Amino acid sequence: TASQELFSLCALAGVGKSSLVHLLCHNQVLGNPSWTVGCSVDVRIHDYKEGTPEEKTYYIELWDVGGSVGSATSVKSTRAVFYNLLNGIILVHDLTNKKSSQNLYRWSLEALNRDVAPTGVLVTNGDYDREQFGDNQIPLLVIGTKLDQIPETKRNEVLTRTAFLAEDFNAEEINLDCTNPRYLAAGSSNAVKLSRFFDKVIEKRYFLRDGNQVCHFS
What we know:
The protein is an alpha/beta fold. It has one domain (7-111, 135-207): P-loop containing nucleotide triphosphate hydrolases (Rossmann fold), CATH 3.40.50.300. The protein has 6 helices and 7 strands, in the order βαββαβααβαβαβ. It has a 4-stranded parallel sheet, sandwiched between helices. Strands 1-3-2 form a 3-stranded mixed sheet. Strand 5, helix 5 and strand 6 (172-175) form a beta-alpha-beta unit. The chain is globular and about 45 Å long. GO terms for molecular function: GTP binding. This is Rab-like protein 3. Belongs to the small GTPase superfamily. Rab family.
């Protein structure tokens, strides 16, 4: 099958996204993760519509952009360079840190070049105005990391609390431990969700737009 390049961008809060990107691209645990300074890039091979007559291989380039929600305007402007022509967004949050999930709303606004005070988003209690993203056509995926660090007795409580995120963003949800590849094992529900998401990104890029060959994904 002929390969085509798909350029993509992963740019969210520092909640284990470097470990996640490494797992997505290499199916291996990142042995010595560090803070991302600037932008790091990795590549994943994805078979679009795998197992069907339409199957085709794409190279998906993941851009892991460093930063924090409270950073200076100049830093935000630098990050904005990587947000052009988004075709998909992975919203990554730390399941052990409630604030990181609340900040996904602000990160999504920034990634969509709408870095303004999010009126209607009350991050203190999870209330969310879905109309702010009513016109968004970009595929979204919500991934919660550090599942292994939540005690079994607290897991249901935490996952119930974060379940609203996927609903608010009209996205599928994956929760995992980036130190254990089995969470993305072939045939697992997580792997199916991930594959379905990448299919949507590819369809938006190659079948729902013009012939320009550049695609970005956050």
